[in-house]
Amino acid sequence: MDVKYKRILLKLSGEALAGNTNRTFDYARIEAYMNDIKEAWLAGVHIGLVVGGGNIFRGLPGTGKGVDRIRGDYMGMLSTVINGLAMQSVLENMGVGCRILSAIGMEPAAEKYSREKVEEAFAEKKVVIFVAGTGNPFFTTDTAAALRAVEMKADLLLKATRVDGVYSDDPEKKPDAVKFDRITFTEAYSKGLAVMDLTAYTLCRENHLPLVVFNINNQGNLLRIIKGESIGTLVVPE
Questions:
Q1: pTM of the model
Q2: By the 8 A CB rule, do 96 and 37 touch?
Q3: How far apart are CA 101 and CA 86, in angstroms?
C-alpha cells in the first residue's frame, strides 16, 4: 500500500482510553483505536505512540496541602506507564509486534528509553510506545510527543482528539466556531488556540515537523491521513 507518511508519532490522551465511561479503561474504545494503528502498521508505517495519564491521575499545582506539583507530575508519568501497558496488551493480542520504552527506569515493566532501541524496534517491525513523558516534571505529554517525534525523525506528528481539527473556539460549546484546514504554529499560538503547549509548538516549528489534529473516533481516519488525504487540521512550520 502506498503511503505518504512512512514514520509517524501518534499522541493519545489518557481520557480517550476511558471513552465515555466512568471507568479507567473502555476496552472496546481502546480496541477500536488499536485496530486503526494495526491498519497503519500493516501498511508498513513505522509508528510511535505517546499516551497521557489523565484517566488515572491528573497532576495539580501545589496548593499547600495534598500532593505537590513535582510529585503530582511523577504520579502522572506513572499513569502513562499503566496506559502504555494496556495498549501494548491490546496490540499484542491483535498480533501487532510492540515495544514499550520508558523515560524513567521501569524494568521489567518497560525498557529504559534510548534512540537506539527505537531503531531496533522499527527494524523488527514493531510499534513503539513511549511512556513516562520526558522523565521530568513540568513537561506535558504533548511536549514528550513532540520530543520523541523529533528524535525518531517522524514525518508527521498526529494529535488524536474527539473533534475533527483545530477551531477558533471550542466547537462543542460554540457551534459557530470556525475550523482551520491549515494553519502555522505561530498563527495557532498567537490566536491562543489550545492545540499544544508552547514547548511542543517550538519543538515542532524549529524542527520542521508538521502536525495533524484529527478526530480519532472516526474509525479509519488514521489510515486516510497517512495515505495523504486531507483530514482534520494540518499545522505547519512557517
A1: 0.94
A2: yes
A3: 14
